[in-house]
Design goal:
Layout (H helix, E strand, L loop, with lengths): L3 H12 L16 H5 L3 H15 L3 H13 L5 H14 L3 H14 L6 H15 L11 H13 L5 H10 L5 H13 L3 H11 L8 H12 L4 H10 L3 H14 L2 H10 L3 H14 L2 H10 L3 H13 L2 H13 L3 H14 L5 H10 L3 H13 L3 H10 L3 H11 L5 H11 L2
Helix pairs in contact: 3-4, 4-5, 5-6, 5-7, 6-7, 7-8, 8-9, 8-10, 9-10, 10-12, 11-12, 12-14, 13-14, 14-16, 15-16, 16-18, 17-18, 18-19, 18-20, 19-20, 20-22, 21-22, 22-24, 23-24
């Protein structure tokens, strides 16, 4: 699409992870076949007209487009569409409809007919005489017509939408995009229908999409409904969609419940990860203290990385006090990612405190990830263990840092 309708369809596609039609066609971009038949005068007029449209100079644009149409060349059909677009922008909707009719009569096979159809749907919707979706064969236009009906409060809109959603003859693509239109309607009948789909009472293939749309359209108001669906479902995809929705709506307590009580380890880890993405450090820290599951603790340590600065503080505490060597080393390594230079004092203290080789290597990994050549050089100079020293030098050799390079020269000149 290349008008206001494009933005609506882009919203539909974006919400449902579908391909978005290109808006770049707003500006003429000639193809090789176009170039072979190019009329420089016509192309210049067309280019000037589209520039005027972009700058909202409607009168100038219409004058230029009329000149293109009069040449009856390869740009004439496009110019007719843009003329209708301009007329509508100027509030001359009846003229725009006549221009679209002229395009349909003069160029019955034009690629611009779909654009004019979309424009007509918009015009009729605003005038109180919306186009009926059944009259449209193209799915995009059918959805535009439906959306126009829904926005106008037309009583016929919801039954048509429900028919599309429930009909086995309709494509899954159309159903998913119709579901987006349904989610925008806050009326009780529309929300009741959406609730049935969310609970899996209609097409089960739409349930996951509906859950994600509910989180966006209703936010925290839908938290209890989603919790009920989560408890009743045995479908991992449905459960994962609910977990993702908790992140969207900002419901850390619901995620904690999943992480603590979910028997599927993968789903529990996903809930912990979403808590990290939410920055729910206090909830994660409490879980870390109360859980006895090493797997959960490990997932929490990873989640602290996504939590940013506060997560770095939590990692600092774990790295300094955790008695399990494996978990401690994991926290140490993650400090380099989450803490940056602020983690250095703790990392150096840990290097001195824990004599085991794995803990020391974890500190070196963290300093390397943090890009801390200065402290790695200092450790290399002080390290007496040949193996540990080689490990440090190996990291400095690939850092391409001036201080690291200077130390490399120092080593070579010994």
């Amino acid at each position: 699409m290349k008008t206001n309708q494009w933005f609506y369809l882009a919203a539909i596609c974006g919400a449902l992870s579908l391909p978005v039609p290109s808006a770049s066609a707003l500006i003429f971009q000639p193809t090789e076949s176009d170039a072979a038949q190019a009329n420089p005068r016509e192309d210049q007029l067309y280019s000037d007209a589209t520039r005027a449209i972009n700058e909202s100079r409607w009168s100038d644009a219409e004058s230029l487009l009329d000149q293109v149409v009069d040449q009856h060349g390869r740009r004439a059909d496009g110019a007719l569409y843009w003329k209708a677009y301009v007329e509508n922008k100027e509030g001359r909707s009846s003229d725009a409809l006549k221009t679209c009719m002229g395009l349909r009569q003069s160029y019955p096979k034009s690629n611009w007919l779909k654009e004019c159809n979309a424009l007509e749907i918009e015009i009729h919707g605003k005038s109180g005489s919306p186009v009926q979706p059944q009259a449209e064969q193209d799915d995009d236009l059918k959805l535009l017509a439906l959306n126009s009906l829904m926005q106008g409060g037309d009583a016929n809109a919801l039954p048509i939408l429900q028919h599309i959603l429930e009909s086995p003859q309709q494509s899954q693509r159309l159903k998913e995009r119709a579901l987006f239109v349904l989610a925008q309607d806050q009326s009780k009948p529309a929300q009741d229908l959406l609730g049935q789909i969310i609970r899996g009472e209609k097409d089960p293939n739409l349930q996951v999409k509906a859950i994600r749309l509910l989180a966006v359209s209703r936010g925290n108001q839908s938290a209890d409904l989603l919790a009920d669906i989560y408890g009743r479902s045995s479908n991992p995809d449905v459960k994962r969609a609910v977990i993702d929705s908790y992140l969207v709506m900002g419901a850390p307590d619901k995620l904690v419940q999943v992480a603590q009580h979910e028997s599927d380890p993968e789903l529990a880890r996903h809930a912990v990860s979403e808590l990290g993405a939410m920055g729910a450090v206090s909830q994660l820290s409490s879980m870390y203290q109360t859980t006895t599951s090493k797997e959960t603790k490990s997932a929490i340590i990873n989640a602290f990385v996504a939590a940013g600065g506060k997560g770095a503080d939590a990692l600092n505490a774990i790295a300094s006090s955790e008695q399990d060597p494996e978990l401690r080393r994991k926290a140490i390594r993650n400090m380099g990612v989450a803490g940056g230079s602020s983690a250095t004092p703790t990392l150096l203290a840990i290097y001195s405190k824990y004599p085991d080789e794995e803990s020391k290597r974890a500190v070196l990994d963290a300093l390397f990830v943090a890009g801390d050549a200065h402290d790695l050089v200092a450790l290399a100079r002080a390290e007496k263990d040949p193996s540990a020293k080689r490990d440090i030098v190996g990291k400095l050799a690939v850092m391409h840092n001036k201080e690291a390079n200077d130390y490399m020269m120092e080593v070579l000149n010994k």
